[in-house]
Amino acid sequence: MGPRAGIVWLLSDMLLVTTMTVLVKLGGASYPAVQIVFIRSLIGLVSVLPMAFRQRHALQQTRHWRRHGFRVLCNTLALNANFAAITALPLALVNAIGFMRPLVVLALAGWLLGERSGPWRWVGAAIGFAGVLVMVGPSEVNWNIGIVAALAAVVFGSLATVQTRALAAENTTVLMVFYTVGLSVFTAIPAVIAWQPVAVADWPLLLAIGVLAQLGQYCYLRAYQGTPANLLAPFGYLSIVLASLAGFLAFGEIPAWTTIAGSAIIVLALVGTSRLDRPRS
Q1: CA–CA dist 57, 142 (Å, integer)
Q2: Domain spans of the chain, in order of start
Q3: String of DSSP letters for 111-133
Q4: Residue segments in the chain with a per-residue pLDDT below the cut of 50
């Protein structure tokens, strides 16, 4: 697969995920985030069970059950927090705060995995944090549970990424099976407790969230399986454009100047550190 095909797969993933976030924001007005996550996980479970059967021997041979469990728990908390943030905040702001994840992964990888990075990475992390302060400080955006949820999504998502790095030697299918099954298990009881009866007219929306999430994950994997990550990385910044456009078209959201300024600071920090520094062995 050539670079162009990889870019097309990545852009397809971004379009699918952006559409999914619009649906999450629509559904979040009526249903708890954990209920939406649980329904999404059940749809993923249907698609992953055949893979689990084919890879049953690899699943039996894994020796990292605790690490898998912690990774999936972090993913579960991150996904619930992200869905809650999408419901409470403008889409562009949630997306912009999410750009902090690579910088948080840097700090956590150094602490938990002993990975070393040069000083420019830490300078970039500090600048990126300043960008977040610009977005969520005294501005047109009021501090609320949505901002706390968005920041929690970054922290727990970063923890999950670090655990995935630690499991680099594991079978990819095993990682997917643990993620999908674990997501269903961890959200089942909270979803039942918080469950709100689903109107017949809302089922297509909730089911579409799960389908779009699975299709997006497939496109994402196809993109990175055949195309260098350094080629695809710059296109990831288009997600904030798509989020802003979707927020405007679907909900009439106009990004605050602080969101635009903070986003620019974070993107510059990411681009700058990736060029000025290389991880040390």
Answers
A1: 51
A2: 3-276
A3: HHT--B--HHHHHHHHHHHHHHH
A4: 279, 281
